[in-house]
DNA sequence: GATGAATGAGGATTCATTCAT
DNA sequence: GATGAATGAATCCTCATTCAT
């Protein structure tokens, strides 16, 4: 009974192939942009033939979509994990900023592709990717709502505007830094942006200058009163 | 060999032609993106022939560049005029936000083209357009610096990050609203964004509004306490 | 975006395709010249699509280059074979002339393309094709040098000029005959040109000038002898 | 009677304009080739507008034709003047070679244009330019015929072949020298080519070395015959 | 399943020529 | 006469996609 197990000797796991293709595509799209990247180039980079890509992805557009979806999913999952171990609105906001910032820095052009190239894809905005990106930015809104509930955040803030300021700000900041070929200090920028959003840029309204003196006096009075209690009781 | 007899045509003022071409190109680029727009389409929309475009613009890229430059120049000039009649950091910041927001709302895709399509234009980032866009966002930084000088703004804020938050936030906000086919309340959003940047979202450690009255009362109490100590016991 | 459904097609051996393309291109280039020939025309003649040409050749210029290179190689190989079985400078020179002449007659415009169209190809002259064409005409120079060594050829001849006279002469001759729609007698022209180069056109060097005087004297002697015959006979 | 002679104050003599246009066109055609030269460029170089060229020349092709015709006429006239003061076939052949060579060296690409670019001009070959170029090369044939008549040239030479060898040789030689960026020694090359054509490259069939000895012997015979006449009969 | 040769529409750009000014 | 803006066909080349092997 020669039960020769002749497994696929050349066939690669589907997931592995796809990962290679997506990696190649992602790098190419990021580096040169969607239009300037050819399927032939992606195939070559992935070490496969052009035709094979079409076994896994409907077309070039679909490939970009899948890549963007994967990116959103990955970062969103990271957000979930982060938030599980962090409490306090400020700390949670900072975590979201930090995570998104590091993701954008890791592949600065990918996020922009969403806005840049998707526009050719007429009806796609209302569907898959649009939903995902909304869900993605939803984490921040949820955290802000919790902050409102807990009293840490003003209840009258424009939620979507805050969301756009955070994500738009990160995108702009990374891209303007890239233009300047400078490095970004991940922690410093996270802190700064978090600060900025939380407390703004205005010089804090100085506390009434006398109040401390008054308190001092009151404390002294209280001290004395307490000290004189024994006599005070008599009458 | 293009040895063909041509139709008739009309000679038009150069500026008029260019305005028509740029309008057509601007709309097409905005609507469909740079790559998806053909010179033939632009020519048709402008009511001229393809060849004529090349009398005025070096190539397609140049046409986009000119359009973007014009946009920046126009809005920058508007900024200058605005700021001439407004004083106070907060009011000036709000004016910049308001002006930029209304420009972006007027042609929401144009500003994005800068970031979306320019990336193919290798060395151009370091040159013309990059310079202009830097100069453009410079107005906000200058206003912020004045605010620091006048004590209205915290001296330790990260200037470029604030800049990126404002312009990136506006861009994202407009584009996310457009996706939802909702209208933007220009004044409300300007106010909100200005507020956000100036004072942040944290619940202010608001000094109790009665504090001075309280202090007064406390002081009177203290006075009485002090004064009545000796006699206070007696009737 | 070329997202169209295609017709069916046949996969063919690479060499076969290339041969067809080159044949079509060669005929078109020869007939109409390089500039007047469109890639579309070549593709149609070759029975393929335009895009396919670009699978084999970088661009139109490259296609011309390849064709010219092939032609030079073919004729050069023929020269080699010819010379292997022929000895004697004159016979060898004639063989080169004959072979080149017949190649030029077979495709009269091809050789001229080299000189006519290559000039646009700026730096190409110093590279591939220039080298090949130099090597090509080198055969004649080598044969001439052998002739000098063997004493059959004057050692003081300007080698490159002779080379240019032979090849330039053939080219001109064929093209002027073609203009006149006349046929060329391959063997006769080969002989004539060979003769021309070998011995020139001058009437063969007059016999030493004194010999005539000598002959005169001899004639006079003879006359006298004849006149004196009557007496001479007596005695 | 104010007979104000208001001559053309801006209008240039027609001939002058044409000369400028032709100069500009000639340089451009020579430098870049016919196809690569645009009418716009010629107009700019000539300091006039594009439209003006069409006042003088039917079209681009016609302009080239005129230029080539002028060139042929100029050189042909020079040939005529040269030949008026030179006699002897060899000297006359050399004069033609020298004159043509110097004309080709002066504008090396012009002559080639005749062969290179004219081919697009289907039926033109049988007409104007073809006639002129035939007439042009006719001078050499005429000189050769005179040489035959005077006995200086072998009567059996292939006239047209000699013509093609001379003109084709010059063309090739100049172009191969240009490729090498070397200078041509006008006189040396003229001499060499003239020599080559006149006497070929073969080592001259040196007069039989014994001929003088033979003559000597013949003279001695004659002497003896003369001396021995009286006695000769006797003894 | 994988391949990669073949497709062919599409697009940017050029330029000879015309003709209203 | 001169101009030069306008034309628009023509061309090379690219590349997403298909399908016979």
Can you describe what's shown?
Four copies of one chain form a homotetramer. Chain A is mostly helical and 235 residues long. Chain A has two domains: 12-57, Orthogonal Bundle (Arc Repressor Mutant, subunit A), CATH 1.10.10; 60-201, Tetracycline Repressor, domain 2 (Orthogonal Bundle). Chain A has ten helices and no strands. In chain A, helix 2 packs across helix 3. The termini of chain A are far apart. In chain A, 33% of the residues are buried. Residues 1-9 and 231-235 of chain A have low confidence and may be disordered. At the C-D interface, helix 6, helix 7, helix 8, helix 9 and helix 10 of C face helix 6, helix 7, helix 8, helix 9 and helix 10 of D. Chain B binds a DNA duplex (21 and 21 nucleotides) through residues 1-12, 14, 17, 38-40, 43, 48-52, 54-55, 59-60.
């Amino acid at each position: 009974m020669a039960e020769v197990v002749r497994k696929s000797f050349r066939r690669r796991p589907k997931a592995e192939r796809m990962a290679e293709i997506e990696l190649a595509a992602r790098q190419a799209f990021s580096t040169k942009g969607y239009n300037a990247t050819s399927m032939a180039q992606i195939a070559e980079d992935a070490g496969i033939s052009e035709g094979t890509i079409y076994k896994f992805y409907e077309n070039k557009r679909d490939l970009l979509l899948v890549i963007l979806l994967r990116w959103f999913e990955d970062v969103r999952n990271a957000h979930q994990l982060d938030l599980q171990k962090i409490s306090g609105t400020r700390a949670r906001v900072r975590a979201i900023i930090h995570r998104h910032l590091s993701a954008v820095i890791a592949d600065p052009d990918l996020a922009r592709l969403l806005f840049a190239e998707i526009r050719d894809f007429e009806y796609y905005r209302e569907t898959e990717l649009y939903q995902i990106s909304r869900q993605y930015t939803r984490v921040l809104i949820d955290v802000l709502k919790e902050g409102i509930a807990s009293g840490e955040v003003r209840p009258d803030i424009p939620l979507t505007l805050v969301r756009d300021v955070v994500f738009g700000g990160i995108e702009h900041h990374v891209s303007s830094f890239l233009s300047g070929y400078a490095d970004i200090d991940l922690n410093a920028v996270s802190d700064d942006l978090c600060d900025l959003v939380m407390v703004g840029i205005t010089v804090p309204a100085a506390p009434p200058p006398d109040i401390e003196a008054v308190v001092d006096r009151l404390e002294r009075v209280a001290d004395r009163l307490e000290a004189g209690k024994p006599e005070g009781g008599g009458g």
